[in-house]
Specification:
Length: 110
């Protein structure tokens, strides 16, 4: 009895993972992100969806050829190898406020 319950649980888990794996292949992630380092001094806006629809970049350019986690949290990597380096290479905007828009003076809800 116990054994068959365990087997059923194992099957459910396996099946669950298969379904989740299938769904992940379709997952495009968030459309917009705000990226910060641990210090959080200069958040960057990242229009993920705009990069996905751009014909200049592919998923693999970032997700295979770069370290997306590092690109989202490490200043030097984001500037020298990730975001800014690619912008420079492809002639996209490299002005600071492209990625770090100036804070609005009035903070909503404060
Ligand atoms: C210009 C670079 C870039 C491109 C192009 C890009 N992504 Fe991302 N993607 C990122 C970054 C950066 C993150 C955030 C990673 C983090 O916070 O750890 C992310 C996050 C994600 C996530 C959330 C889960 C995760 O891995 O953190 C998914 C899912 C995802 N991307 C799918 C895609 C798909 C599918 C495409 C192509 C249609 C794509 N991305 C194109 C940079 C990119
Ligand atoms: C692999 C190349 C590549 C990487 C990596 C990349 N970008 Fe871009 N990005 C582009 C290109 C190309 C454009 C211009 C869009 C176009 O011309 O299709 C762009 C446009 C933008 C824009 C302006 C969108 C607009 O409204 O015009 C922002 C903001 C931006 N990127 C932020 C980032 C940030 C932040 C990162 C890192 C997390 C990043 N990008 C990583 C290639 C890249
Ligand atoms: C193409 C996008 C892009 C451009 C252009 C860019 N940055 Fe960044 N920057 C990032 C990303 C992504 C990070 C890491 C996540 C974060 O903290 O915003 C970062 C991090 C930083 C940090 C670290 C903040 C902290 O919390 O420690 C500073 C400071 C900074 N950038 C300043 C600048 C300045 C000054 C310029 C112009 C000379 C510039 N950046 C241009 C994307 C960019």
């Amino acid at each position: 009895m116990k054994k068959s319950v365990l087997c059923a649980a194992a099957f459910t888990m396996l099946f669950g993972f298969t379904v989740a794996g299938g769904a992940m292949a379709e997952d495009k992630g968030p459309a917009e992100m705000t990226l910060t380092t641990e210090a959080g001094k200069k958040p960057a806006v990242f229009p993920h969806a705009a990069h996905q629809t751009s014909d200049k970049v592919s998923c693999d350019d970032c997700h295979k050829n770069l370290d997306v986690k590092k690109m989202a949290t490490d200043k030097d990597y984001a500037h020298n190898e990730g975001c800014k380096a690619c912008h420079k290479e492809l002639g996209a905007d490299t002005k600071c406020n492209t990625c770090h828009p100036k804070k609005k003076k009035a903070i909503e809800g404060c």
